[in-house]
């Protein structure tokens, strides 16, 4: 053990930081830690290229904490993260490593929480500030000197920050800090935009690159399933029947898709929840904790919402929607198979997405095996196996404890023990289909339309549009469907409608249901109670410079 810990001891970390690392139970530095810690300790600017899950947080947290002076009550280190979840994770890591440094304080700064306490903590001298760019710029508008004492800046997952549109915010933040600061940039990829930032804001940076892409996926069994877009939910349900998973994260492209799929899974009895950017921070934290402790088994998430998510229970990743690029695919499936554990990644591929599958295989250097949808017999076998596993432990002493009751009940009812057992099984399985014919009727996966019509509908779904006459989905109780003449051809997205209605209508997010954007109009689900008053409030609202003009939608 002494020899293993010597790896960290040889990195010249502050003794108190080293003690905290040992107490945490780290066994040896990772590749990114071994290469980055000496560079940062020496004060160099640095560009680090490494995937999530390689230990990069400790790679910058340990040397920066070693260089901070806890006796100085002023912000000395700023770590920028693209999402609230990642900011909280990084702040927690800093607090863990700083446990044996009296007087050192860490503050996480992110949207969705009150600004006052955050600004007060910074002004009171928290030495480490972990922030999302948008909220930090809000603080700079209140106090432009708030970052004037920063000596160390870290941009964590810089490529994600640019994808989320934080470039302008980053420029504001750079200008608010001393030019003499040390700047460290971590990014999974180094596109031109990242290189431009490095050339402008880093001074003679050292480069550290860790090749982990193939390593990330070697411990993960990968498979893909060809499916039409209109069959995805049915395919997910059937796959879950036969996959033996502990916890699973399902990736989709949009916030609405997280809600839709989570609702489908909950209706089937799975312990599932959505995780997207619209969910309040306290609820996000509850979802993640519930996944960790087993109260949830499935989380349906967007890429951004899953940033920083590391739950040891996750054995499966299901890509319900194809990621936009191979790097995102590697990030997604890296949620399982971590720290030497094995994992399984499933990818649903529509006919139009076969080319992207080939790109993923080329970039990762691995074949993503094709599998077929489980047939009715496989589903039936899986159900009976689960039923057998649940009943087997109960049989051992059942006759001794309930034998007399069995005799009494069969006598009173006037039936055989076999008939009574069958009745109890029917009740215990709650109407679940347990014959081949019933299973095949229960989960039809071939639509009634022709293959050509299915293909056309699949292509429209992949593009994000659909025919105007497509039937609306059923309404939830207490909701009314309203229509606006604004649609995709007007450059309108669901988030634009949502923001306008929230701002002008004074509603909370949970009050608004599904938003469906069609080519020439959009449908929005609003509360039935007080609808006329709400529509009156919204009568002058404009979206994208055009009048919203919401009206109750008459489906007849």
Task: Write a brief caption for the model.
With 556 residues, this protein is an alpha/beta fold. The chain contains 23 helices and 20 strands.
Question: What this model shows, in words?
Answer:
With 556 residues, the chain is an alpha/beta fold. The chain has 4 domains: 2-211, 3-Layer(aba) Sandwich (Rossmann fold), CATH 3.40.50.300; 214-374, Rossmann fold (3-Layer(aba) Sandwich), CATH 3.40.50.300; 376-387 and 432-452, no CATH class; 474-552, RRM (RNA recognition motif) domain (Alpha-Beta Plaits). It is built from 23 helices and 20 strands. The chain has a 7-stranded parallel β-sheet with strand order 3-4-2-5-6-1-7, with helices on both faces. A 7-stranded parallel β-sheet has the order 10-11-9-12-13-8-14, with helices on both faces. Strands 16-17-15-20 form a 4-stranded antiparallel β-sheet, with helices on one face. Strand 18 (542-543) and strand 19 (546-547) form a beta hairpin. Helix 15 packs across helix 16 (354-364). The chain is globular and about 90 Å long. Mean pLDDT is 82; it is low at 1-5 and 444-471.
Topology:
Elements: H1 2-9, H2 15-24, H3 31-41, E1 46-49, H4 56-67, E2 77-80, H5 84-97, E3 106-109, H6 115-123, E4 128-131, H7 133-142, E5 152-155, H8 158-163, H9 167-175, E6 182-187, H10 192-201, E7 206-209, H11 213-218, E8 220-226, H12 232-242, E9 247-251, H13 255-267, E10 272-275, H14 281-293, E11 298-301, E12 314-319, H15 326-333, E13 343-349, H16 354-364, E14 369-370, H17 376-395, H18 398-413, H19 417-428, H20 436-442, H21 451-463, E15 479-484, H22 494-505, E16 515-517, E17 522-527, H23 531-537, E18 542-543, E19 546-547, E20 551-552
Helix pairs in contact: 3-4, 4-5, 7-9, 15-16, 17-20
């Amino acid at each position: 053990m002494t020899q293993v810990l010597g790896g960290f001891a040889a990195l010249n970390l502050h003794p108190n930081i080293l003690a905290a690392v040992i107490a945490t139970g780290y066994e040896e530095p990772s590749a990114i830690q071994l290469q980055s810690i000496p560079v940062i300790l020496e004060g160099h600017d640095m560009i680090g290229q490494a995937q999530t899950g390689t230990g990069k947080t400790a790679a910058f947290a340990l040397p920066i904490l070693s260089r901070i002076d806890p006796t100085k009550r002023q912000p000395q280190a700023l770590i920028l993260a693209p999402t609230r979840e990642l900011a909280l994770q990084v702040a927690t890591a800093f607090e863990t490593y700083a446990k044996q440094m009296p007087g050192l304080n860490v503050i996480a700064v992110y949207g969705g929480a009150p600004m006052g306490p955050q600004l007060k903590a910074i002004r009171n001298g928290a030495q480490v500030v972990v922030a999302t760019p948008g909220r930090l710029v809000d603080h700079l508008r209140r106090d432009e000197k708030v970052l004037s004492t920063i000596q160390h800046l870290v941009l964590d997952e810089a490529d994600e920050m640019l994808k989320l549109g934080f470039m302008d915010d980053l420029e504001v933040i750079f200008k608010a800090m001393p030019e003499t600061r040390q700047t460290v940039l971590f990014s999974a990829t180094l596109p031109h935009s990242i290189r431009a930032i490095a050339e402008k804001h880093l001074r003679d940076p050292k480069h550290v690159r860790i090749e982990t892409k193939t390593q990330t996926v070697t411990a993960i069994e990968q498979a893909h399933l060809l499916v039409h877009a209109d069959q995805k939910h049915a395919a997910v349900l059937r796959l879950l029947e036969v996959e033996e998973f502990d916890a699973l994260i399902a990736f989709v492209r949009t916030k609405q898709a997280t809600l839709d799929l989570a609702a489908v899974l909950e209706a089937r009895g799975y312990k599932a929840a959505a995780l997207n950017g619209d969910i309040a921070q306290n609820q996000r934290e509850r979802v993640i904790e519930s996944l960790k402790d087993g109260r949830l088994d499935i989380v349906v998430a967007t890429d951004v919402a899953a940033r920083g998510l590391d739950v040891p229970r996750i054995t499966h990743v299901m890509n319900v929607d194809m990621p936009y690029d191979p790097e995102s695919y590697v990030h997604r499936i890296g949620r399982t198979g971590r720290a030497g554990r094995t994992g399984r990644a499933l990818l649903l591929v529509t006919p139009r997405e076969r080319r992207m599958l080939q790109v993923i295989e080329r970039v990762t250097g691995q074949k993503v095996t094709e599998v077929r949808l489980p047939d009715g017999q496989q589903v039936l076998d899986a159900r009976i196996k689960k039923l057998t596993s649940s009943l087997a432990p109960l049989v051992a002493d059942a006759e001794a404890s309930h034998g007399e009751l069995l005799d009494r009940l069969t006598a009173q009812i006037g039936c055989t023990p076999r008939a009574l057992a069958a009745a109890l099984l029917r009740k215990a399985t709650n109407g679940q289909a347990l014959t081949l014919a019933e299973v095949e009727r229960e989960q039809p996966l071939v639509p009634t339309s022709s293959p050509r019509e299915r293909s056309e509908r699949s292509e429209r779904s992949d593009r994000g549009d659909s025919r105007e006459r497509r039937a609306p989905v059923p309404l939830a109780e207490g909701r009314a469907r309203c229509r606006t003449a604004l649609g995709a051809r007007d450059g309108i997205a669901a988030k634009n409608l949502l923001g306008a209605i929230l701002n002008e209508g004074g509603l909370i997010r949970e009050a608004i249901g599904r938003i469906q954007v069609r080519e020439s109009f959009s449908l929005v689900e609003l509360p039935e109670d007080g609808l006329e008053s709400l529509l009156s409030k919204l009568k002058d609202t404009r979206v994208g410079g055009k009048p919203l003009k919401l009206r109750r939608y008459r489906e007849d």
